[in-house]
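Q: My collaborator sent me two sequences in one message, no labels, and asked for predicted structures for both. Can we handle them in order? The first one she listed is below.
A: Yes, handling them in the order given. First sequence, followed by its structure tokens:
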Amino acid sequence: MTRVLVYSSKPHDREFLPAAPAASALDWQFEPGRLTPDTARRAAGFDAACIFVNDCADARTLQVLAECGVRLLALRCAGYDQVDLAAARQLGVAVVRVPAYSPHAVAEHTVALLMALVRRIPQAHRRVRDFDFSHRNLTGFDLHGKMAGIVGTGKIGRIVAQILKGFGMCVRATDPFPSEAWARAHGIEYTDFDTLVATSKVLSLHLPLTAETRNCINAAVLARMPRGSVLVNTGRGGLVETQALIHALKLGHLEGAALDVYAGEAGLFFEDHSGKPLPDDQLSLLLNLPNLLLTAHQGFLTTDALTEIARVTGENLDRFRAGNSFLDGTLL
């Protein structure tokens, strides 16, 4: 039986992973802490380590895992910027992922954040809970007829574009590998990044985090966005230069920003820090801005997505146990 140590495990992992169809031949052990160089030795005696978005699988950590006998790193997510793939190959540690668990979950969360931001839903909800039914400072704007810019048209970006098109927005997109047939079918126009930034009332990010995309939304880019525009990021926190975003929001150049991800989220998100001083000054600044809406990386958190994550992760691990090839698109 394959022994699997699940790092960064939460109650939903302990519920969904063992219930997956292919999971019966797997011995699951759950570790609430993140994978780091210091916690990697907890995997001694395990065949596989199962990690999530904020675990650290750099060269040093992978070296320790390999020394402990781990032969498979199973990501229960699509992104893999947290993994040093070159080091994994050199050490003989196979890396698999869940390439498309539910793009609808993240896309729908993106649109939910956008609508909550532009219609001031959190502020309105807090106010009426205090029996204050006034409308001061709750004025939003219609999405219908406005320009939406989609940065990255993978599965999630395309679904967001289609939803916003359904709202009657004008939708443009940019991507290094355009999906021209899809764009034609949905009346969406591709353009270059600079034009998209300069013309979009709503700019929504759906890119992986790479050396090329890190801080792609920086001070210079934010300055080119139209005054009164909105930034939405449900991709990766590192796409946005945090200090530049704080400056643009404080000046009022951006009307608002809605984020499900944050560059410094590792070690903070997915944990309860209530009643303690927040150890991240930039995050404290963000949370005190009235035109910032933040959720703690929960775009994936639907029963549909969790079921699919568990299914593919379980199949990946079971195929490893049986010595079979991996599912298409899962092996990195």
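Q: And the one she listed second?
A: Here it is, processed independently of the first:
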Amino acid sequence: MIMNSISRLENISVKGFRRLQQIDLEMRNLIVMIGANGSGKTSFLDILSILAASANGKLNDTLQLKGGLNEILTRGKAQELEIAVSMKVPERQPLKYSLTLSPKGLSYEIREETLTQQSDPSAPEPFQYIESSGLDIKYFNQEDRRLLRPNWEHNPLETSLSQIPKMYREPENLRKSLASCTYYGALDVSEKSLIRLPQAMRPAKLPGASGENLVPCLYDLRETDRDSFELVEDIISIAFPDFKRLNFPPVAAGTLSMTWTDGNFPKDIYIHELSEGTLRFLWLITLLQSQDLTTITLLDEPEVSLHPELLRHLVYLMREASKHTQLIVATHSDRLIGFLEPHEVLVCDLEEGEATMTWADTLNLDKWLEDYSLDEIWAMNVMGGRP
């Protein structure tokens, strides 16, 4: 899925979600969040995951897994959860989507939901695709050219965005963009993890959140896009100078393994024998070089188990990936920050228990950057984001 301006979120605001009591944030192609534990980084990833679930018709299931709406509201300070996003649209005004959830007994209600676009600059009000308040659901019907109530059984615990007919290209692009948001957490590389086991030979364009498709993904890349596969091997060679090539020996009917040829050893190293850091780096390379990344990609602490010298290559991969996806990364690594530019870094802090988020390039760091690197400035607590 090649990302373009039609599917890029340009702003998000959140009120009442855990420590995100009230934030209003400009979205960028690459967002690397830094900050102490409990400063809102995970909450920001979670709110995007909730938006994805709501666009997929899985809002109720997701909230139940989190213990219900009451469990995720800002404690003692919020009575409802409000989320609003805007999405760029080529040659037109942005689409604006808002969702407000309120507790209702042990459950919740969708108190308000709107999807609008200022299609005519001279019009006093924006064009409304969705206008819902409680059980009063209205959506714009293309045939009747007006707002109508559904004539089908509307699930009150799921958003109208996920249920109304897909009549308009731009609103559907917004829904798909939100729905495709994909989370990648810390990769399990333990002895019996999926990434270390033989994998089925099947078409795969992404390595999977658990690395369950890493081998077929790389094999498919070698067979269908030799240039991209050679780029993967080139990056590995730069990071590991003794690396020679990747091989894909069949293990049993319909399954593949992968071996790593190293100049220091006479025999190839099988994937289950690779170190944790090597496996994680190989998975990250495969993930971030993919042209099939979803519109929004969430990556939590990618630096885990990586040698500090590998972080330079990781930042290069992140920048390349951000050409195809809106990449949002949470990290605790000061070394990773040292390879980034201020416009890529979002500083997360706490003020009286409330999360704040500030772009580093708005903090007047130019004088400091004349003498110090960005990670040194962070370590000195000049830009915040420290415990």
